[in-house]
Design brief:
The chain has 157 residues and is mainly beta. The chain has 3 helices and 9 strands. The protein has a single domain, classed as Jelly Rolls, CATH 2.60.120.10.
């Protein structure tokens, strides 16, 4: 193995669910369709970092917070590492706990909610590095999603 390869390899050290050397960033640039979410890109980040076909990111959702309700063409994998979640997956709500692994199929409406009163929800998410933009629901999609009372109670837009 050449020295160049060894120089690019690294370990990001975690301290209290934050990784040294990984930029802490806002979840999304603007909007009111999410609450209390921060993220760090751990691998496959911006140009100049390792050339991977995917990104691994850590998201932290404060108690009572939630991610945006969205869907997109790409699939992704979420692994809960901290706290508990209620997850909207199309027209159902599922519970998730640490080390549960969620596969979110393409075009699935999804939203993660932190449900512990005193602990954030933390999860790792792996996704294609080059991917389509998320789509938020229109009025017709919201009507279909809210046909299930459990989804209607949990959904936030």
């Amino acid at each position: 193995m050449s020295e160049d390869h060894a120089d690019r390899s690294r370990i990001l050290r975690e301290r209290d669910y934050r990784w040294e050397g990984a930029e802490d960033a806002a979840y999304k640039a603007e909007g009111t369709h999410f609450s209390g979410v921060r993220r760090q890109t751990l691998a496959g980040g911006p140009a100049g970092q390792e050339a991977l076909g995917f990104e691994t990111r850590y998201f932290q959702v404060e108690p009572g917070g939630y991610t945006s309700l969205e869907r997109h063409q790409h699939a992704h994998v979420v692994i809960i590492v901290r706290g508990h979640a209620e997850v909207i997956l199309d027209q159902r709500v599922a519970s998730a706990r640490p080390l549960d692994c969620l596969y979110i199929a393409p075009w699935t409406w999804h939203q993660l909610h932190a449900v512990d009163a005193d602990e954030p929800l933390g999860f790792l998410c792996s996704v294609d590095r080059d991917r389509d933009r998320p789509e938020r629901p229109d009025a017709d999609a919201l009507t279909r999603l809210c046909a299930d009372p459990a989804v209607a109670r949990r959904i936030r837009t």
